[in-house]
Amino acid sequence: MYSVDRVSEDVPIHSWFPKENMFSFQTATTTMQANFRKHLRMVGSRRMRAQTFADRREKSFSRSWSDPTPIKTDPLHDSRDSGDLQESCGTLDEGSADQIWEEEREEERLACQGEDFIPPKIMLISSKVPKAEYVPNIIRRDDHSIIPILYDHEHATFDDILEEIEKKLNAYRRGCKIWRMLIFCQGGPGHLYLLKNKVATFAKVEKEEDMILFWKRLSRLMTKLNPEPNVIHVMGCYVLGNPNGEKLFQNLKNLMKPQSITFESPLELSAQGKEMIETYFDFRLYRLWKTRQHSKLLDYDDIL
Question: Are 266 and 273 in contact (CB under 8 A)?
Answer without folding.
Answer: yes
